[in-house]
Amino acid sequence: MTRSAQPLILVTGATGKVGRSFIARLLAEPSLAHWRVRALCHQRALPPHPRIESARGAIQDRQAVQQVLQDVTHVLHLATSKETPEDVMDVAVKGLFWLLEGCRASPSFHQFILIGGDAAVGHFHYPHPVPVVETQPHSAYPGCYALSKVIEEVMLQQYFIQYGLNGCCLRAPWILEKDDLRFHLSFGADVFGSPRWCDRVGAEAAAAYAACGAIPVLLDPQGEGVLRNFVHVDDLVSAILAAIDHPRARQQVMNVCMDEPIDYVRLGEYLVRTRSSTLVPLRDRYHSTWLDNSKAKFLLGWRPHYDMERLVESAWGYRRADDEPRRVWYPG
Q1: pLDDT digits (tens, 9 = 90+) for 100-134
Q2: Model's pTM, two decimal places?
Q3: For the chain, percent of residues with pLDDT exceeding 90
Q4: I need a surface site. Which of 62, 136, 154, 240 has the fewest CB within 10 A?
């Protein structure tokens, strides 16, 4: 297999949260100064840069995929579709299939990195009495998004078996950046992700809680605090960079997350101590999950830098500029 003197990485989903962060880090890393980026953009665009080549196209279009794979040495596959049944199979099945088919036939190709999700193992929708490791059977929760994450992992693993493809899957939980966590804990209509606390308590109570900055505390059916996994985008990007060309990453699935899940009770207690927050316990159907990141730490030498306190302080300390409105491209 021929290797280019100047590696060229194709990034799908390049304009999203992870894509933008990854590309910025790669461009800033002195040891990767000889790398170039080709971004496959569908609806949005990246700002111009001498080392970035932006290509327009839909990932389900075989011809478009064949064109963007020309001379590519590495692929970082971030493109995804949330609960949009009309798009999800085109992106998760057809798009990934064309990418993998193109890679296995390409003389320049070297490594494929898939960013998976803990939706493939059901994250907090099902009881997990022990830590979730990479051998946990796939268990998608209802809906098309979780199913798509299972299909992606299985398809990639079959290409390992069928064709000896060099690649890996970094399985991430909910990826946070900037003020995401603060908006996740909002009782307002601006709540980020699930659960939507305002819908749980009703409009009148939600307005009162939002006015005083109250914090929801998610409890499981038995009334215990739910443990939920997160990863900060900076830590995920560090794991991606660690996996690039790492021989021990070959054909591996690795959980990439914080060392410990966030306990909503402990989170609430911390916000009471540090910000005198009012807490609102809410019992729901969700279950605690502990995603085990030992394999990624062992194989890649990677370590997450964000724990609960750092995640809180960075979210509450983040101040948006006037020209940086909060946009949620996916619900989380």
Answers
A1: 999 999 999 999 999 999 999 999 999 999 999 99
A2: 0.96
A3: 87
A4: 154
Architecture of domain 8-176+230-257+291-302: 3-Layer(aba) Sandwich (3.40)
pLDDT, tens digit, for every residue of 152-170? 999 999 999 999 999 999 9
Domain range list for the chain: 8-176+230-257+291-302
Closest by CA position to 186, among listed 271, 309, 123, 306: 271
